Structures are given as structure tokens and as C-alpha cells.
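Q: Sequence in, structure out?
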Amino acid sequence: MSFFGLDCVKPTETELERKLRANDRDFNLSFKYATNAIKTSKYNLFSFLPLNLFEQFQRIANAYFLVLLVLQVIPQISSLSWFTTVVPLILVLSVTAAKDATDDINRHRSDNRVNNRKVQVLIDRKLCSEKWMNVQVGDIIKLENNQFVTADLLLLSSSEPLNLVYVETAELDGETNLKVRQALPVTGELGEDVEKLADFNGEVRCEPPNNRLDRFTGTLTFGGQKYSLDNEKILLRGCTLRNTEWCFGLVLFAGPETKLMQNSGKSTFKRTSIDRLMNVLVLCIFGFLAVMCVVLAIGNYIWETKEGSGFTAFLPRGDGVSAGFSTFLTFWSYIIILNTVVPISLYVSVEIIRLGNSFYIDWDRKMYHAGSDTPAEARTTTLNEELGQIKYVFSDKTGTLTQNIMVFNKCSINGKSYGYVGDDTEHRPEHLKHRKAVDFSFNPLADPRFVFHDHSLVEAVKLENPEVHAFFRLLALCHTVMAEEKTEGELLYQAQSPDEGALVTAARNFGFVFRSRTPDSISIVEMGRQRSYQLLAILDFNNVRKRMSVIVRGPEGKLSLFCKGADTIIYEKLHPSCRKMMDITTEHLNEFAGEGLRTLALAHKDLDEEYFHEWKQRHHEASTSLDDREGKLDQLYEEIETELQLLGATAIEDKLQDGVPQTIEQLAKADIKVWVLTGDKQETAENIGYSCNLLREEMNEVFIVSGNSGDQVQQELRNALSSMKPEPAENSVFLSDAASGKGAKAAEDETVNGEYGLVINGHSLAYALERSMELDFLRAACLCKAVICCRVTPLQKAQVVELVKTYKRAVTLAIGDGANDVSMIKAAHIGVGISGQEGMQAVLSSDYSFAQFRFLQRLLLVHGRWSYLRMCKFLRYFFYKNFTFTFVHFWFAFFCGFSAQTVYDEWFITLYNLMYTALPVLGMGLFDQDVNSSWSFQFPQLYVPGQRNLYFSKKAFFKCALHSCYSSLVLFFIPYAALQDTVRDDGRDVADYQSFALLTQTCLMFAVSIQLGLEMSYWTAVNTFFVLGSLAMYFAVTFTLYSNGMFLILPAAFPFIGTARNSLSQPNVWLTILLTSILCVLPVVTYRFLLTQLCPTINEKVMYKVRQAKATPPPPSQRARIRRTSSRRSGYAFSHAQGYGDLVTSGRYLRRPAVPRPSGFVNMGRATTGFSPMGRSAGYSPTGRSQNTKAPDVEVTSLQMFRTIPDPAL
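A: Exactly. Output:
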């Protein structure tokens, strides 16, 4: 580490494998592994100033002004004092440096606080208290309850039964529910015996440091035996030990090599389209500045050659100064004078406006969700105006459009369907409307909050129907749920997916109660009888298998395999004898699909003892393999999961969030296209699409792309294209210039008659995203009103977003709530996280977050549109006032011999952007709005101009420059003509340079203030104060600076003595100011009047309606109930995470069997870890939050449960 904090150490060779030995520091030090000290700070006391200034001057604007400052200290060049640039530059640098210093001081404090924590380390056969920073790889450390995990550890032993530990991983993944880890039995025997632990000399070989939180591969060699290690035996730094008295661990990775620190890299820096346009414009302005300076330098050469020689008699040139050298100096002098075309205050003002608009989002009570106590949060301040330009929204389904609260509604058992959908009388079938809920009093362990109305299923259970019993026995055995029983009969379930919780709860109520589990057994209560099943294997779920199985031995000794999963997968594994039942169950699945339910097929089979023994041996060999472990296990799973017997299917309702259909309809009216990217089955996703108004029955056609080969997919896409646009695709739909700055062709927007939808599944999407086919897919999708991609992986979600970003001139937004949405959220221009049922991973990676999908319409149609409107108005006006200010210098050059004399007083030049015009334009950028939020919702079409970049573009910038050019001509020549040959009332001359400078700058102040008034649509007390106060400040400062007292203090700095009181006391001066102001704004007023009358914009039409309505809120629209019936097939997306099977069989989730001890799962934050279904349908929430609850005093949105009928008035 160098003196200035820069890492000067030579990069080490890439580590391919980590090798370490317990309790052997000398051996481990030979590998030069990192210590446990961390450093997240950037600076130290000595390096702060040089490093910070170096970073700040890497910004083009700062470097530009530094060059100007250097030029200004050269007397031969500068006609401006150095303070005109150094004051604003130092101000900007100081504010940024103070912010950076504050952030870094906080990082230093955090580092010191962490590095100086104490932990017990086993050194020289005794436990010593050491600072975290002194812990090394290979050390054995002791952790106690509620302590943070010091480094990435291999768990050796713990105080809990079966060597379990409980950890909270909120700092890693945002989830507050407890996770369980378990030590190897061989190390668990070490216990807390310090002597045994000191003698432990196990050797670990494992993967090198990496950022994969979800996997770990390694082996432990101890006592001549080799043991496999996986992620479930590792405690990661950043976790907190909970409900565990103590545990011992072996340090594998320390400090910067821990997975937490490996994941602390910076996210991709996102920039808005306005930022990118600004960079282009600033470069153009620099070029224009150079051209102006060249023109003026040439003018100086001509003047010096023709006229300058006549002045040499009384103003002799310096030695060696020729006309050519004078021209060279003049060029640089005008570079300094005209630098205000790009003032440094522009960048400061932009950041202030963005920060203010971010606070509006944070403070918006209408985006606050009382049920979960979650406000909206702008997690970035740099993207607000981009929210007003969104063209494509990519949304997850489960937990985003739906509540991720599962309700067990229906099932099919042995060819018979049970149950119905809906938990209120309005949606029940007629014959069930007055039927009471099932009475589960026969089952003392039933969950009282579970509600079911089909009595026939309970009767079948009581009659001991063998198929029904087998069905619920499977639900009670085939899962990874953990049970906690604090008091007798009071069960709390902790499930890693809400589907599993709902299914196990259903089995519980129907008499098959999952009671407890150990690593090798499951205890259930079957119709009041306690039974224990030996758990021999869990064939875990993953995204390819889409199913899970358990192999158990029943109390009678019979070997059985129970399997549940997606019906398409299960059907492939069934015995041919199940054909008839498959057909009946398929009909039931179609019925369930019409109601938008998530389905799951159940199957089982008996196993041969001898075959299973041989299979189990091969399974053990595969599970301990270091080479392609997962692939070998998958092959074994495929082998044993064959010739299954179908039991039936379950149907779970995943309820829509409040206001989802209305939000999607509002977004569609705003010409925002919504694409749903989900892991759910095609039929389920399609039905959710209909229920949330994404797909509609009145659409001309909904295309289904489900080909199993590239040729089939391409043909289906081309068929869809020919149906929507019969004429052949022309090359003209792709523009030759780059949309993304990477040389890719930009796909032009096309129009099509009619409305279409597109549904494509995951395996077809894989082909559609291939290089040869992606443009066909993109073109077909963009012609559709709605697109649903189902059965997609997280990577495919990101690929779809990237495809649209690459080929479309459009701004994208991705919204989701789970870890599988993170890649999509990071890939989009804007990422929105929903703090829902699937943890906080999406929120932690997002740019904006809130609790409900319906808040998206307010984020875009109100905050986004206002932010974009304000930023565009700010930029147009800012360039106008600065171009006007600068161009006056250009015209003056033709009347001062191109001598680089300034037309204004130097103090005015210094304070113009810092004081006189700063607050009014900030007021407009922070408070302006064309119409209020109610009218924004009433007319979503107001959003469209932002998508088309109508408010600020190269064309708008060019118009602004022309306007400034005209205003500068008026501001220079009218005062020039007015003062020429003019005398005061007492006959004295007023046509001096100082009086002209004062008159010109006063005219400029009035002109730009009036122009600001014309730009502003929404006047507040603050805006009014800023505008009038700035004018008052100008006169107060001017009279002060031009006073006798200031001149006597510093005569050289305040030469304009008495100019203000002499000039501004003359009536003709004020008449000149009035005339100049009128001439500046008259063409603008005329142009806007004619434009409004002849070609009004959507904004002007709505603002006219507002004035007609006298600014009262719009009347509520007529609304109609949404009704839909459909027989479309639905399906089940297994909302399950890989790895829980191994977790269960290893026993790392298990608590002590029964209860006196109070240290069970505890509440963390707002989430609870117990399974506590709430509401009338006993919906299951993995965080235990109350479902379907409303705060009593919270206003219900007017958009809930209705569909808007378009207003024909617009």
C-alpha cells in the first residue's frame, strides 16, 4: 500500500484452489492469504486532497474550468479577474470534497468499528480475545449467541442438538427469516472441548475466493477420511448467530476474500438519456465556442492590421508583439470570456433538482403502504427524469402482479375434483353460496385459520378413502418445511416457499399433520395416530427438474417414493397404466387454469429394497464427488423417478395485488408496453395476463410461440408477423445509426391495425434470443400490445431487457420482488424493487422501491412526468439565459476592436449564475408542474411527449440557441442605440462604458426573469419569492458594489463607483429597460399564442380543460366491473429454491423437539419466521405478515377493482 493509499502491490497469481490446515499458522502463512482486516475507505489524511482533486478533475467540466483558471492568471490573455472563475470552481470543488470526506470518514469509522470487534480465537491451546483484524485463515474461533460471524467459516461444532446453528442473513440477502446450518458429525464430536479442538489438524481443500453466495465446494481430510463440504456447512461473514449459545468454526476466507466483501463491488453506473444528450451538446457547445473565438480572433487580426497601427502612437505595442501574436492571445482571451456558455453551476443545479425530486418520492404518502409500513424510496438521485420517458415495463408476475400469498382452493384426487375458488360469497357457485365452512373440530391439531367449503373432501378423509389418504400423506411428507412447537399442539411452520406452506397446512387440517423432523425421520400425525417415517433421501428441486421427491420407509417397513412437481414433468414420469387418470386429471387442470390457479401434480411408487440399496450407494458416491457433482446426482434422480403412479393434483390461488388491472390499463393508455417475464407455467401466466387486463378477450389474436426447435420458433414468429403485417418486412424498419452507442441498428417503431398479444415459453425463447432470430422476435413482440414470457430463467429475463435496450430507442423499466429478478433489474435503465414476500434482494439492487405494483402508475405518471418536465424546462431556460448572457459579449467584440474587453462588470459576471439567477431556475426545477396529479391520472396521454423526447432534444436546443441569439441582439443594440448621443437631465453625458454595462446587465436581468415567468406553469409562494427576491438582490448588491465605501476599501476591485445611482435615476434608462424587455418576449408570446391556437399539444389541451374546470379535481370516471370467465389452462411454477433437500437431510434446520426453552425462532424487524396464515382463506405468507389487511384510516384508491371507461372528451 503506497503513501497515498494507492495499491502498488504487484497482482498475485490467480488462486485456483485454497489449501489450509487447522491450527497451523506457519503452514497457512506460506500461501500469503489475506488477513481479516477490511478497508472500504478510499482516502487517508495525507492522500485525501490529491486523490480527491484528481478524481474531481477527471470530470470534463471541472477540468475545463481549471484550464480556464490557468488561462486567467496569464496577464497577456485575461481581461477577467481570476476570481470570476476561481470562486465558483472552489465552491463546487469544496462542496463535493466535503461530501466525499464525510462519506469516507463514515467508512473509516465503520472499518475501525468492525476491525476492532473482539472474538475468541484458539491460540496456543487456549481461547484468547483477539481483534477481528488479527484473525487469520486456519484459525479456530468461538462465536456466541447474537454475535456477527467474523469471517467465512467451516462450522465445526455447536451447542445445539445435531450440531445445528441458526443464522440471520439479512446483511447478505435482506431476508430476516432464520437459516440453519449443520456441522459434519465428525467435527461435531469435538464439542467445546478446547483440548480436542486444539488437536484438530484437519486439512481443507476448497474453491478459491469468489462471490457466489449460494454454493461452496470443498473437502475436509481428517483422520485419514475425506468428507465433502457444501454451502450448508459454511457460515458466511455478515451473518448473525441467533438462538445458539455457542459454536466453533474454522476460518476459510478472511477479510477482503470473504464472500460478503467479494460481493461489495459497485453496480453498473446508470445514466439518463438526458445525461447522454447533454454530453453530446456540451461537446457541440465547446466546438461552437471555439468557432466564435476563431471568428473574433480573425476579426482582431484584421482590426490590428487596418486600424490598430493608428493607436500605436499613444498605446505602443510590447516588444515582439505583432498582429499575429495579438490574434493568438485574443483567441485565448475570448475562450475565457465566453466560457459561460457552459457554466459550472449547471452541473450543481442539476444535482440539486434531482435530489429534490427524489425527496418528493420518499415523502409521497400516496405511495406509502400501511399494511407493511413501507414507504416508497428513491434509492438513487440520478435517474428521476428517466421515469418520465419509460416505453417498456418488464414485470415479474409472482409477488409483483400477485400477492405471493397462496390459498389452497382445489384439488383433484383419483379423478375427482374437490373445492372451489373464491373466499367470499359473491364468487361462490350458487349451490355453495350459503354452505358453511368445513368444521375441522375433529382434528385438534387443525389450523383454525384455514377455511375450506367442500365437505365431500372431509367425508372422503373420514371414510378412509385410500387414495385420499395417500394424497394428503404425500403432502405431509414430501416437502422441506420446518415445524416448531412452542406449546403442545401449537405448530408454527417455516417454509421456504409459500406454496409449500399452504400445501402442508392443508394436509394438516385434513388430518395429516406434519409434526417434526430429524435428519433421518419425519413424524406426522395421521388421523390422530402418531407415525414416524424414516427419511432415506430427498431428491431436491432445481430449475431444470421442476420437481422434488422423498424416499421414505414407513412404519410397516415399506419403501416409498413420493414426488410432486410441474404436471408436464410428472406426466413424463408416469407408468403407462395411468393414461386414463391422466386424461381426467388434465381436464381438471384445465378447469383450474381457467380460474388462474397454480397447479402441482402428485405421484408415488413403491421401491424394491435391493435396487434401492444399490442406488443409495451410487448416490453417496455422487454426493461426495468433486467433479460434476450436480450432474451425477441429476442422472441418479432421473433413473429412480420413473413409472410413477398418479395420485392427483393441487390448485393454489395466487391472488392479484390491489389495483393491478387498473394500473396496467393506465400504463397502456400512456403508451407504455408491459411485458411479463415469469418463471410460471404458460397457462398460469396467460390467465394472470387476462385477469390483470394485460391480455383482453377483444384482442384480434394472441399468438402462442411454443416451438421445440429453432426452425419451428422462427416459423411461428414469421406467421405472427405476417398476420399482423401482411406486407413483407422491409429493411427500412432498422435504422442505420446506433441506438445504444454500440453500433447496433435501431429498430424503428411500427404501427399495426388491431391489438395483438404474444405468449412465448422459456425453451422457445432460448431459440428466439439467438443472433439469427432475435430481430424477428423483437419485431413481432413490439407490434403486440402485450407480451408474456413464461418459464424463463433469471438470465433470460436480463437477455430480453438487453435485447430491447440494444435495438429500440426506448427507455426500459424492470420491476420485481425476488432474487431471480435482480439481473433483470440491473439490466434495465430503471430498476424497481417491490418489498414483498420474497425477501429484499430485489430492493437492494433497485433504483426505486415500494410495496405494491399499483404505486408504479404514480411513480411514472406523476413523479416521473413531473421530473422530466421540470428538468427539460430547467435545461432549456438555463441554456437560454447563459447563451443570451454570452452572445452579448460576441456582439460587443465588433465595437471594442476585438480587444477581449467584457461588456459587463466583473462582479456581475461572477455573481450572475451563483446568486442572481440561481434560485429562480431552481424553483422552477423543483416546483413546476403543468397539471396536478389528479389530472395526470385522468389523462395518461400526457406521458407520451416524454417518450418521444419532445421537451428537450437537439431540435429544442437549437431553437433555444436561436432564441438566445435574438435576445442578445436586442439586449446589446437597443441599449447601445439608446445611450448613443444621450445626455442626462442636467446635460451631462451618460454614454460611457460603465453606464452601458450597467444598463445592458439590468436589461438582461429583467429579460431572463420575464422569460422564466413565461416558462413557469405553476406559481407558488416560493417561486414568486425567488424571482422577485433575485431581482431585489441584484439591485441591492449592485448599489452596494458601486458605492463609494467599497471603492475606498479596494479601488481596483470596485471601479464602477457611483454608476448605479447615476444611471438608474434617469427615466430614459428605465424606458430602455422596458423597451428591451418587451422586444425580447414579444416574439415568444406571439409564437406560443399562434402555436397554441393552430397546433396545441396534449399538455395545452389538458391545461385548457383545467382552466375551464377552475382547477377543481376532475369528476370520477364511469367505471364498470371487470368480469371474465375462461377455460384457459393454468399451471404451476415451483416457487422453490435448490438446496433445501440436502439441508433437511443434514438436519441443519432442526430445533430441539419440545418446548420448555423460549429461544425459538424470534421476530426480526417486521417479519416473523413462524408460519401464521391469516385472513379468511388462511393464505400462507413465508414472512408471517398479515394478509389482506387494510389500515383503518388509509384512503382506498379510486382505481381499485374497476376498469376505466375512456373519456371521449380528449
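The longest helix spans residues 855-893.
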